[in-house]
User: Fold this.
Amino acid sequence: MKTLIIGETSNNELSSGTLEIISKATDLNLDFTVITVGNSDPSNIGSNDFSNIYFKLNTNKLNLSNCADEIKSFIEKNEIKLVLSNSSYIGRDIIAFLSIDFNTSPVSNVTNFEISNNELTTINLINGGESEYKASIISDVKLLLVRPKSFEQKGIQLSDNFETNIITDNENSIDVFDIHIEEKTGPQLEDSKIVISAGRGMVDAENLSMINELAEKLNAAIGGTRAIVDAGWMPYSQQVGQTGKTVKPDVYIACGISGATQHQVGMKDSKFIIAINKDEEAPIFQISDLGIVGDTLTVIPKLIENL
Ligand SMILES: Cc1cc2nc3c(=O)[nH]c(=O)nc-3n(C[C@H](O)[C@H](O)[C@H](O)COP(=O)(O)OP(=O)(O)OC[C@H]3O[C@@H](n4cnc5c(N)ncnc54)[C@H](O)[C@@H]3O)c2cc1C
Assistant:
């Protein structure tokens, strides 16, 4: 099945989500091409194993409709039957345009898919990750939005071997007046091998200093629940869960987190889960490999002391 992967960049490199999809396509031996969309000047996003075309957007305009038009022409010209994209802002916007162009419904929140006898079946999460369903996709052009961290990222050899296509603006392009790039320091949530997340059981925003100290000792990234993000203890960019980020670290330490399904959906696939909660009935313990029933404000300082 001829496939197009819509990729993205992060810090001038192929994003981890893009590399995850490329790994899956390679595993399935799909005949695939990548179109990477971005507005920076990346260098090492090509490959000798697959073709990657960089669709460079203007930084001062929002012009994804033009970009989607060119992707549409590429799909038609190359008789692409399957389009895979990350479930990201750019991915969702482009897939939305393509779904109108090809009069087909995109399948979102895909966590896996298989192809047998040229038939495509997807596995999707619904109800905030509480239920999974399988769907058989019969449209001519199949549009899939893949949930981050659904596939293992394999070692992919990248090179400078890629073409660039500058996307022009049109009368529908929207002017961008200001761009705020959030400062990122320390290990990043999506890539870190250890993630420590805080919940309302940290009792007060001031106590997050303990989480910072523990994270520094373990070289870990810091996340949080929506409850504390809504309370203004932490920025939204650190929220883990259904409406935040999906993480899959080797170790996830949940501090004072009840384990609501909307939180679990963003971290339940972590390899080893440690939970600290004073309520032994807290749902987070059901998915934990190691549970500590205790007060976060007593347990965390002891952990720091012993590291
Ligand atoms: C549409 C929708 C989307 C959502 N998306 C997200 C999302 O992306 N991410 C997310 O996290 N949530 C999300 N939520 C919210 C989610 O339902 C929960 O409300 C939230 O995860 C709860 O956060 P919490 O565990 O910090 O707080 P709580 O549920 O209040 O849990 C606090 C826990 O801390 C424990 N505790 C209290 N004091 C201590 C102490 N001193 N020591 C140890 N333990 C203590 C308590 O026993 C309790 O288990 C969403 C909800 C909806 C409806």
Observations:
- The longest helix spans residues 64-77.
- The chain has a mean pLDDT of 94.
